[in-house]
Amino acid sequence: MRAFVILRLALRSVGRNARRSVLTAAAMVLGLALLIFSRSLADGGHEQWIDSAVTLGAGHVAIQAPGYLESASLDHRLDAASVDRAVAAVRATLGAELAAVAPRLAVEGLASAPASALPVRIEGVDPELEVAFSNMPSRLTEGRYLAPDDRLSAFVGVELARRLDLEVGSRFVLTAQSSAGDIQGQLVRVTGLFRTGIPEVDEGLVHIPIETARTWLGTPGEATTVALLLSSSRFSDAAVARLRSATAEDAGLRVLGWQETSPELHDAIVIDDVGDYIFHGILFAIVALAILNSIMMSVLGRRREFGILQAMGLTRAQTGWVVFGEGLFLTFASGLVGVVVGMLFTWGFFRNGLDFSAFMENDMAFSGAIIDPVIVPEFHVRQIVLSLYSILLIGTLASIYPALRASRFDVAEAMKFDQ
Amino acid sequence: MSRAPNGSAAVRTEDVWKVYPQEPEPVRAVQGLSLQIERGDFVAMAGPSGSGKTTVLNLIGGLTRPSEGRIWVGDVELTSMKNKELARLRLERIGFVFQAYNLLPVLTALENAEFTLLLRGVPRDERVRRVRSLFAEIGLEGLEDRMPGKLSGGQQQRVAVARAVVGEPALVLADEPTANLDSVTSAALLDTMERLNREHGTTFLFSTHDPSVMARARRLIHLVDGRISSDERRDAVGRGP
What we know:
By secondary structure, chain A is α+β, with helices and mostly antiparallel strands. In chain A, about 55% of the residues lie in helices and about 20% in strands. Chain A has helices at about 1-15, 20-55, 70, 80-95, 125-135, 160-165, 200-205, 210-215, 235-245, 260, 265-300, 305-310, 315-350, 380-410, 410-415; strands at about 60-65, 100-110, 115-125, 140-145, 155, 170-175, 185-195, 205-210, 225-230, 255, 355, 365, 370, 375. The longest helix of chain A has about 40 residues, at about 20-55. Chain B is of the alpha/beta class. In chain B, the strands form two sheets. A six-stranded mixed β-sheet of chain B has the order 6-7-8-3-9-10, with helices on both faces. In chain B, strands 2-1-4-5 form a four-stranded antiparallel β-sheet, with helices on one face. The longest helix of chain B is centred in the C-terminal third of the chain and has 18 residues, at about 185-200. Chain B is globular. The relative contact order of chain B is 0.18. Classes of the chains: A alpha+beta, B alpha/beta. The interface of A and B includes residues 309 and 315 of A.
């Protein structure tokens, strides 16, 4: 019965002090809405970075032979049976979250033309699978991407072409160490040029058909990486865990997440997140002070009311619970409204992305990722729940002190207070 | 909790002092007050401002603690009670009427009046029946759903009286209950309290400056500087000026 009375008094007080309640709630709603907007923008941006990096690199998940990550050498490659086991494990373990799986045979080598010679990373790819996997074909500036029937074709970056004085149709020689340890050369013809905006990629990456690479390097049916593309990076950790479990008995396979194959990108995201959390901490502190101030002013202005409650038979603790109940109600109601407002605002105004191109003079890239100037916000349930928890925690904590104050008023003094 | 030396008293105080530490001199609001009020009495406590009337009511109501001395309400001693026990005592045995009405602004007239019954866990039907019956007696019929801000001063004070007596407490402490009322409203309110005293045997202790309250009291105590300067038992109760 007492709990019911306390709750009723709390709700009535919220309703009676409508202006104060609305102001307090507005601080929380605004704080939470801003938090959701900021978090969804950060998550959207990070997803774009990851997407950009994994489609140019080793995918969200990579299955390699032990030692390849450290050596990047053909000595640590997957043999044909391992490639088959890896692909079979992927197909058996992952479901709808798997967007594409593609074996790749990569080697460091030299691209030589009459004009010059430059060190390059040569990636043997399956042209058909690569279209589904990476965005390289979409970076085409001239010519065409590799086709399934191509044998001696190469897809090269515009910077490499410029420095080697190549154009579509030009021939040049790729040189690398074969699986047997010999230096082997392979003549290829440029079928197309690409531009990613990442200098090291545009100047140092060559795609050739994987069968050509296998024949050239003496690695039939083999690969250095079986790369997996998922529908979202959110599934990466779970996919890695499940694949590791599925291949635990197979000493020839090593399952890696994008965080391990692209550690610089992972670190960049962590640093960016830390910056965000500092901003969110400041935001929370401001919101907490606003709530605390509002509730505290209300408590100080209602001393006589609390005195009456105690004179009528409520205990000090129960008087405090009335104030705490007001704070809790406002916090929970504002939390729910804040989530809706935050999502509607973000979705309503920025569902097609927020364009930062005015602040970016040229293409920006780092850690193998291209920064798209248009960031499309993404709602992650986990982040929204975390944001909601955070604001609820802040509101609850900010209600404690006013509640304690209300419970500690001297009744006789409180009754003298002129409302 | 010890028993009162005299079980028939509604209130008994024994050498009660209330001293507020203050610079340069501590304020002695109540100085050695020894008093006994019998059950069913109708007592007025008069005196100039600062004479300690409100402090005495607060001490007897357990709203503040004495610096020294002992206080009994009925057969229980307040002095050694914990805050929680004092809250229960106020809820079950004491009704308060304050000068400034002091209704809870977030509750309607009926909800204010039934508040102590609600805290005691009295079922809703019983609460409403008792409050409506009391409202009918004191002329508040039809005002049950009004918020305090929509009631006149006299109406608010009658709601406050209803709140104080609806739980049939043994003791009602009324601090200048007529101070903010006109003479007609004051008279009506005193009529109500006299009737409740007569019919329910409720003990009333007023602090007052109002001659009409003093005129109706069966016992009139004068306080000066926190001490009893006179204590007059009057058998005939007048109607006041």
